Amino acid sequence: MPDPYPEEFTIEINRPGLARYLRRAERRRIDVVLGTLGAFGGLFYAAAWVERIEASGATIAPLLIPALVVAGAALGALLGTFLTPLVYAVLSRKEVRRQVESLHVAVEGPYLRIRSQSSRTSDRKLHFRSIVDYSTVQDRLARRCGVEVLQLTTMAGGQHTLVLIPAVEDCLEVRDTLAEVDR
């Protein structure tokens, strides 16, 4: 009886596109965290400043208090946003580069093997029988970076139900090829 999964091939990754995609995604995450922390820090700083003014016996116009608090929050968020490139360069740049260089996707007989490395090493082998859906996705970030994401839905429950492989070269063709291997 012939092997129903005779094919072995590597799926090409658009590495420059993947680098842009991961860099922007990571900067967006850092920006949200720092912007939120900065906004709360500015909010508390402005509130403490208002309390110090009132404690000194000076009076503040009632409409000025919310304006000072909002201005403090906005300045804090702006400061957090300006710190994003520095935090990215110090904390995330090498990790993103490692992810870009290490992503490897291949068909190995009845398995789809996905290897990647960032802060942790991941080496997954998915049997084609466990994959129930193959689709391509292009959200706003992927579209801006000029990449498509191969999305696989598996029968497994929990957090590993959806497998995303960003920046696959010729994503539609790869999707169709994988679906044919899986017949």
The amount of helix comes to: 40-55%
Order of helices and strands: EHHEEEEHEEH
Number of strands: 7
For the sheet with most strands, the description reads: 4 strands, antiparallel
Mean pLDDT: 85
Q: Detail the poorly predicted runs.
A: none
- Spatial ordering of strands, largest sheet: 1-2-3-4
Percentage beta strand: 15-25%
Rg from Cα: 24 Å
* Distinct helical segment count: 4
Shape category: elongated
What is the structural class?
A: alpha+beta
Distance between the termini: 16 Å
Topology of this structure?
Blueprint: E1 8-11, H1 15-55, H2 64-102, E2 104-108, E3 111-117, E4 121-127, E5 131-137, H3 140-145, E6 149-154, E7 162-166, H4 171-181
Antiparallel strand pairs: 1-2, 2-3, 3-4, 5-6, 6-7
Helix pairs in contact: 1-2
Tags for this model:
elongated, 183 residues, four-stranded antiparallel beta sheet, three-stranded antiparallel beta sheet, 22% strand, alpha+beta, 4 helices, 7 strands
